[in-house]
């Protein structure tokens, strides 16, 4: 099973990273719709898409306005956008208001139910996370694989049971440890607690993403610190493809 990290940055894009979007092309499943959403047409393999939004901050939804042409040119048959009810209302009311973006793509906005059936006999569930304005994390369990996507949250240990034993954990790591105070102030995560979560939850692999765009170097979050705690940790990069 393949997942493509279309965007691995947070807040705003920089020359190295666009903001959050992950895609499982064979399944037609997408998590978040940040500025990297413009890359989705290059990876389309299905006629129907399911988009699961974690929340409605701009770095996770701006790309919804980028998909009008693929829909008008019949590149897909349907696009269902899942999210919490208040977040979906905010998107339709504000992002797609006439003064900002006058044409609303033909999305099927759907309030998140308790579980969602996804292609490949998978079951998706979600969990509320601690973040200003609220956010949710996702987990999908297939018969032979499992995946969790956790972003924009503080206190990673609070969702240990939710991610326990997944094959692949994709988790935000906006700050390095020396900025732990800022992580707490902004409702984000830093390196050591995320690595400890992966270790304690006994996940298969940890991928760190949603990186501070002001840190564009090769090691913005202290990857060796994470690997000392949980060796099977990698730093996500835009357009990285992972098998799990």
Automatic annotation (TrEMBL):
Pfam families, per the entry: Lactamase_B_2
GO function terms (MF aspect): 3'-tRNA processing endoribonuclease activity
Entry's EC annotation: 3.1.-.-
Domain of life: Bacteria
Keyword Hydrolase in annotation: yes
Matches recorded under InterPro entries: Metallo-B-lactamas, RibonucZ/Hydroxyglut_hydro
Enzyme class: hydrolase
Residue span(s) of domain Metallo-beta-lactamase: 29-211
Keywords recorded for this protein, A-Z: Hydrolase
Protein name listed in UniProt: Ribonuclease BN
Gene: rbn_1
